[in-house]
Amino acid sequence: MSLALEITGFLLGVASWLVTGVSLANDYWKVSSFAGSVIISNRHYENLWHSCAEDSTGIAECRDFESLLALSSFLQACRALMIIALILGLISMIVSIMGLKCIQCGSNNEQTKAKTAVTGGALFILAGLCTMTAVSWYGARVVQDFYRPRGEVT
């Protein structure tokens, strides 16, 4: 495997880890708005950690979800998957750095370096799957809630 390919894969993995962290901190996982007239409008948005309401003047009030036990199971699972993805991404960055040919840390054996680099790449893929599962599950739930008639409970 060429050095350029290894470094490109590593940089893409780091970029994906950063995007996962930014998406976890993003407030706009779910947005709903109500506009009654020009003067009255209301927007509600939430993410995995808190829920916010914003009025027509632009003033927002956010509240953290009070209890972990009161959250729905899918929200708890999405939180866990995103945190696991960040931890796996961090571990995979460390393992991948040890496997790069240009780094003289760890073993200098070519086969060991290659196995270490492949292990780091597999951990990056696993972290991506955790992120993809959490985001897709949350998005599917938003769509499901949108099409569910009011008053119907899951």
Q: Layout of SSEs?
A:
Blueprint: H1 3-25, E1 30-35, E2 41-46, E3 50-55, E4 60-64, H2 73-99, H3 110-147
Helix pairs in contact: 1-2, 1-3, 2-3
Write out key terms for the chains shown:
alpha+beta, 154 residues, single chain, elongated
What do you see in this structure?
With 154 residues, this protein is α+β, with helices and mostly antiparallel strands. The chain is 57% helix and 15% strand. It has 3 helices and 4 strands, in the order αββββαα. The protein has helices at 3-25, 73-99, 110-147, and strands at 30-35, 41-46, 50-55, 60-64. It has a 4-stranded antiparallel beta sheet, with no helix packed on it. β3 and β4 (60-64) form a beta hairpin. α2 (73-99) runs antiparallel to α3. The protein is elongated and about 70 Å long. The model has no long low-confidence stretch (mean pLDDT 87).
Condensed summary:
This protein is of the alpha+beta class. The chain is built from 3 helices and 4 strands; from the N terminus they run H-E-E-E-E-H-H.
Low-confidence stretches are: none
Mean pLDDT: 87
Morphology call: elongated
Spatial gap, N to C terminus: 51 Å
Percent strand: 5-15%
Q: Main beta sheet, described? A: 4 strands, antiparallel
Strand order of the largest sheet: 1-2-3-4
